[in-house]
């Protein structure tokens, strides 16, 4: 890929990252605005939104900033940045998978044993 396409993609990812952070923060605020006692479903939804915020806020934004910075200087990825990017991206993606799995099990239990959720 040429550098122009990469910088255009990085800018698009940066915009999507900002929109995702705002939308997930809005979701957390709307779910938690009037909660006096947290139910498991609200907690799991906020956990999922929080992991999305972290996933967009740390590794994706870091990737975009480094790619855009490369356009104006000879700044390159080094081994330390690569390790930080890969470890945070995969860790937060794994946490997102666990959050979705927990939501799925919670929904299954709500359908299977509705007496416990009255």
From TrEMBL:
One of its GO terms (cellular component) is membrane. Its main location: membrane. It is found in: Membrane. The chain crosses the membrane at residues 12-31, 43-68, 88-105. GO terms for molecular function: G protein-coupled receptor activity. Residues 23-118 form the G-protein coupled receptors family 1 profile domain. InterPro entries: GCR_153/162 (IPR022347), GPCR_Rhodpsn_7TM (IPR017452). The keyword Membrane applies. Keywords: Membrane, Transmembrane, Transmembrane helix. This is G-protein coupled receptors family 1 profile domain-containing protein. It comes from Phoxinus phoxinus.
């Amino acid at each position: 890929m040429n550098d122009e396409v990469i910088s255009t993609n990085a800018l698009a990812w940066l915009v999507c990252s900002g929109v995702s952070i705002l939308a997930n923060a809005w979701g957390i605020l709307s779910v938690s605005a009037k909660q006096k006692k947290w139910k498991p479903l609200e907690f799991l939804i906020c956990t999922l939104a929080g992991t999305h915020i972290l996933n967009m806020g740390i590794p994706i934004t870091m990737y975009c900033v480094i790619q855009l910075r490369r356009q104006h200087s000879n700044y390159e990825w080094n081994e330390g940045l690569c390790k930080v990017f890969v470890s945070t991206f995969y860790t937060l993606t794994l946490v997102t998978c666990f959050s979705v799995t927990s939501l799925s099990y919670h929904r299954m239990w709500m359908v299977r044993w509705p007496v416990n959720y009255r």
